[in-house]
Write a structure and sequence with these properties.
By secondary structure, this protein is of the alpha+beta class. Helix content is 24%, strand content 16%. The protein has one domain. The chain has helices at 22-30, 37-53, 65-68, 145-159, 166-182, 220-223, and strands spanning 6-11, 72-80, 96-104, 122-127, 190-193, 237-240, 254-256, 259-261.
Length: 272
């Protein structure tokens, strides 16, 4: 999570160097001193290219290494734009606009995945069109056909009835698990991070989770319950394991210019 205004994830190599995991590089890059989002993306592109280009892959045949190096960072959230008229956009409440960003050596703003990695990473950013109710971006593995059409219809129907993101998070989680059943490259444990427009300008440092079932074996719906404002600040993330009996064991990493942190818990049985 990048402050309270954006969230980023990656697909591809889990390590970008011998000494640093890909998630650590992503967090480190976003913890640099305060700067604009385009500069942050450029810095991430530079650091990722430098690291992955020099990453040894001794167990991979030389002819396959450029394909294996394909890695993408994908993010979304709200971008503050003061000179919106210069971008031919209508004024927006608090001058915030939803955006999608991709930093990759194998794709641009589209979902097309090139067969081999480039030497450099390229940053791309796109604002959601004003007539679009939502945007869906899948990276890493294909997500097309009737499965995608069904998900987009479900999202559209939900957005016509609700204003909170937990229902959408549940739909996306189910879609990811559906792909995981037939594709071993996709994991069934899902971390959902939620950027709420109402929280964009709140002080950084909050790290509130959604409801966490106190006992194992709770149904999936318990993870995605919407908590009214009277029960505390709205959640920023939900971790939903594939096995209902598994306890939460990690949180998203959190970065803000000048600081970064993440918390990981060792899975424990109820008795311990």
């Amino acid at each position: 999570m990048l402050g309270n205004h954006a969230t980023f994830a990656y697909t591809g190599l889990s390590r970008c160097s011998v000494a640093e995991s890909t998630e650590a590089l992503l967090t480190r890059c976003f913890a640099q001193p305060a700067t604009s989002i385009d500069k942050q993306l450029e810095y991430l592109a530079k650091e990722a290219a430098r690291s992955i280009r020099n990453l040894p892959l001794p167990s991979i045949r030389p002819s396959e290494r450029r394909a294996v190096r394909r890695t993408s960072f994908v993010g979304g959230g709200y971008l503050g734009i003061k000179n919106f008229r210069m971008l031919d956009r209508m004024p927006s409440l608090e001058e915030l606009h939803p955006f999608l960003a991709v930093v990759s050596n194998a794709q641009g703003i589209t979902e097309e995945w090139r067969p081999e990695a480039d030497q450099e990473f390229s940053p791309s950013i796109k604002l959601l069109e004003q007539d679009d109710l939502f945007g869906l971006h899948a990276a890493g593995q294909p997500f097309v056909g009737s499965e995608r059409v069904k998900l987009e219809r479900s999202i559209r129907r939900s957005l016509e009835r609700i204003t909170h993101p937990e229902s959408i998070a549940r739909l996306l989680t189910r879609a990811i698990r559906g792909v995981a059943v037939r594709n071993s490259r996709v994991g069934p444990n899902v971390m959902c991070t939620m950027v709420r427009r109402s929280q964009v300008f709140t002080a950084p440092g909050t790290f509130t989770s959604g409801p966490i079932p106190a006992t194992p074996g709770r149904p999936e719906a318990d993870y995605f319950r919407w908590l009214p404002d009277s029960e505390g600040p709205p959640g920023q993330w939900i971790y939903c394991p594939a096995e209902p009996g598994e306890f939460i064991y990690n949180t998203p990493n959190y970065a803000y210019p000048g600081t970064a942190y993440g918390i990981r818990f060792e899975p424990k049985s109820p008795s311990t």
